[in-house]
UniProtKB/TrEMBL annotation:
<protein>
    <submittedName>
        <fullName>Putative propionyl-CoA carboxylase beta chain</fullName>
        <ecNumber>6.4.1.3</ecNumber>
    </submittedName>
</protein>
<dbReference type="GO" id="GO:0004658">
    <property type="term" value="F:propionyl-CoA carboxylase activity"/>
</dbReference>
<feature type="domain" description="CoA carboxyltransferase C-terminal">
    <location>
        <begin position="224"/>
        <end position="474"/>
    </location>
</feature>
<dbReference type="InterPro" id="IPR051047">
    <property type="entry name" value="AccD/PCCB"/>
</dbReference>
<keyword id="KW-0436">Ligase</keyword>
<dbReference type="InterPro" id="IPR011763">
    <property type="entry name" value="COA_CT_C"/>
</dbReference>
<dbReference type="GO" id="GO:0009317">
    <property type="term" value="C:acetyl-CoA carboxylase complex"/>
</dbReference>
<feature type="domain" description="CoA carboxyltransferase N-terminal">
    <location>
        <begin position="1"/>
        <end position="227"/>
    </location>
</feature>
<dbReference type="InterPro" id="IPR011762">
    <property type="entry name" value="COA_CT_N"/>
</dbReference>
<dbReference type="InterPro" id="IPR034733">
    <property type="entry name" value="AcCoA_carboxyl_beta"/>
</dbReference>
<dbReference type="Pfam" id="PF01039">
    <property type="entry name" value="Carboxyl_trans"/>
</dbReference>
<dbReference type="InterPro" id="IPR029045">
    <property type="entry name" value="ClpP/crotonase-like_dom_sf"/>
</dbReference>
Length: 478
C-alpha cells in the first residue's frame, strides 16, 4: 500500500463495485524481463489488478494500480494487462475505469515499457467515443501516465494524496513545489485537467459510481433513461431569479433537482453538467454571471462573455454528449467575447471549437435564451443558425447584433443625445427584442420563466427519435 493511500488497490475495486461482483482477469500474469536483478523481485499481478464487475447492475471493466508492487510501475506485462482489458471492454461495449497510483514507467524495462504505454494510448484512442473512459488518481500519476489520464473522458483526483503532472513542479523553470504545486488537485481542477476532486478516496469512488449510473454504457445505446417521479408539468416559480447563477436554474428544472456538475472549478462562467428531464440524462451548458451562496449573496461575479477556457470546457462536453447520444440543453446569456490581450491570442480558435462542437452534434439540441444574445458569441452558443432543433426565449431576452444604445451611437454618429436615445429605443424594439427574432423564425416560442421545465421536456420528447444524416467523411479536420 502506498504511504499516502488509505485503501489498497483491491480495496479500491471492492469499494467501487457492487458487493462480490468483481471477477479478476490475468491474475497470474507477471514480468518477463530479468534485467537489473528483476528476477529476484516479486511483483504481484505485475503491479496492476484487472477485471470486471458491476456498478448498480451495470457492467464495467476496471484496472487498479498497486503501488505496493514495485511502485505500481508500468512495465511490458503491466501494460498488456490493461490493453487486454480494453479489448474485452470493447467487445462487451462496457465502460473502462482506471484507478491510478503509480511511480511511472518501469526503468528496468525501458523501451518495452514505452511500447506498452504507447499501446495503452492506442487502445484509449480506439475506445474514444465508443465506451466511456474514466480515470481516478489516488497517488502519483506523472509523465506519460498524465497523458493516459487525460485521454479519458472524465478524470477524478483525491484531494490530499494524489499528484497529476506531466513534469514535476520543481523541474519547471522558476518554480518549486512550495511556490506552486502544479501537481496538486487544486491546480489541476482550476486548470481543467480533472473533472472532480474528492475530499477522500471513498468520495471519489462514490462519485464515479454515480456517474456510471447516469451515462450510457456505449455509443450504441440511445442515451440513458430511468424512471422519473417528478411532475412533467411542474412549474419553476424561482427560475426568473436564477438567471445569473444558472447552476441553480439547471437544478431547479431537473427531475427531483438532480445535477451532476463537470469541471466545477474550471471556467466558472460556463456551467456544464448532467441533469435529468423526464428520466432522460441530458447534458446542460449554461452561461453564468454570478455564483450565489445559500443566502443569495454573490461570492463570484463574471461578465456575460465567452472566454477561451469557457469555450473549451463547453466544446469538450458537447462532443462527449454527441458521441454517446446524450441530448444537449443550453441556457444562453452572452453579449460577446472577453476583451483583453491574452484572450485575443486564443479566443477565436476556442470560439470556433465551440461553434464546431454544436454544429457537428447530431443529438437533440434545445436552446433557451435567458438574457442577452449578441453577435457571433450568441451564434456559437447553440443557436438555430448552427443547428439547434428548438430555440425558446424568455420575454425579457435580447437577441441581435449588439446593445441597442451602442448600435444607435454607431449608426447616428454625431447626432444629439436625444436622437441617439430615440433610435436606441427603436433599435431595441425592431432588432433586439425576442419577438423580432421569433418573427424571423430564429426563435420557436417565447415562454414564461416558470414554464421552462415543461417546454424543454416536451421539446426533447418530440426529438427522441431524431435522425440527422450528414455527408460521409472519415472525420472533421478541425
Amino acid at each position: 500500500m502506498s504511504n499516502n493511500a488509505q485503501l489498497s488497490a483491491r480495496e479500491r475495486i471492492a469499494s467501487l463495485l457492487d458487493e462480490n461482483s468483481f471477477v479478476e482477469v490475468g491474475a497470474l500474469v507477471t514480468k518477463r524481463s530479468t534485467d537489473f536483478n528483476l528476477e529476484q523481485k516479486e511483483i504481484p499481478n505485475d503491479g496492476v489488478i484487472t477485471g470486471y464487475g458491476l456498478i448498480d447492475g451495470n457492467p464495467v471493466y476496471v484496472f487498479s494500480q498497486d503501488s505496493s508492487a514495485l511502485g505500481g510501475s508500468v512495465g511490458e506485462m503491466h501494460a498488456k494487462k490493461i490493453t487486454r482489458l480494453y479489448d474485452l471492454a470493447l467487445k462487451a461495449k462496457a465502460p473502462v475505469i482506471g484507478l491510478i497510483d503509480s511511480s511511472g514507467l518501469r526503468l528496468q524495462e525501458s523501451s518495452d515499457a514505452l511500447n506498452g504505454l504507447g499501446e495503452i494510448y492506442a487502445k484509449q484512442v480506439m475506445a474514444s467515443g465508443v465506451i466511456p473512459q474514466i480515470t481516478a488518481v489516488f497517488g502519483n500519476c506523472g509523465g506519460g501516465l498524465a497523458v493516459m489520464a487525460s485521454l479519458s473522458d472524465f478524470s477524478f483526483m483525491e484531494e490530499k494524496s494524489s499528484r497529476l503532472f506531466l513534469q514535476t513542479p520543481n523541474s519547471l523553470l522558476g518554480n518549486h513545489k512550495q511556490k506552486l504545486d502544479t501537481s496538486g488537485a487544486d491546480f489541476n481542477a482550476k486548470s481543467g485537467n480533472v473533472d472532480y476532486v474528492g475530499a477522500n478516496e471513498l468520495e471519489v469512488l462514490n462519485k464515479i459510481r454515480e456517474l456510471i449510473s447516469i451515462l450510457p454504457s456505449n455509443n450504441e445505446e440511445g442515451g440513458r433513461v430511468s424512471e422519473s417521479s417528478d411532475n412533467l408539468n411542474r412549474l419553476v416559480p424561482n427560475f426568473s431569479s436564477e438567471l445569473e447563477d444558472t447552476k441553480s436554474a439547471l437544478i431547479d428544472i431537473s427531475d427531483n433537482y438532480y445535477f451532476y456538475e463537470i469541471k466545477a472549478d474550471y471556467a466558472k462562467e460556463m456551467v456544464t453538467g448532467f441533469i435529468r428531464l423526464n428520466g432522460v440524462t441530458v447534458g446542460a451548458v449554461a452561461n453564468r454571471t454570478k455564483i450565489l451562496d445559500e443566502n443569495g449573496k454573490a461570492t463570484d461575479q463574471f461578465d456575460n462573455v465567452l472566454t477561451t477556457d469557457g469555450c473549451k470546457k463547453a466544446a469538450s462536453f458537447v462532443r462527449f454528449c454527441d458521441a454517446f447520444n446524450i441530448p444537449v440543453l443550453t441556457l444562453t446569456n452572452v453579449s460577446g467575447y472577453k476583451a483583453d490581450v491574452n484572450e485575443e491570442k486564443t479566443i477565436a480558435k476556442a470560439s470556433a471549437e465551440l461553434a464546431y462542437a454544436f454544429a457537428d452534434a447530431t443529438v437533440p439540441k434545445v436552446n433557451v435564451v435567458i438574457g442577452k444574445a449578441y453577435g457571433s458569441a450568441y451564434v456559437n452558443m447553440n443557436s438555430k443558425h448552427i443547428g439547434a432543433d428548438y430555440v425558446f426565449a424568455l420575454p425579457t431576452a435580447e437577441i441581435g447584433m449588439m446593445d441597442a444604445k451602442l448600435a444607435a451611437q454607431i449608426m447616428y454618429d454625431g447626432s444629439s443625445a436625444e436622437v441617439i436615445n430615440e433610435k436606441a429605443e427603436e433599435y431595441a424594439t425592431l432588432q433586439n427584442a425576442a419577438l423580432s427574432a421569433a418573427k424571423r423564425g430564429y426563435v420557436d416560442n417565447i415562454i414564461e420563466p416558470e414554464t421552462v421545465r415543461k417546454h424543454v421536456i416536451y421539446a426533447f420528447e418530440m426529438l427522441y427519435s431524431k435522425y440527422e444524416e450528414r455527408p460521409f467523411k472519415k472525420h472533421g479536420s478541425f
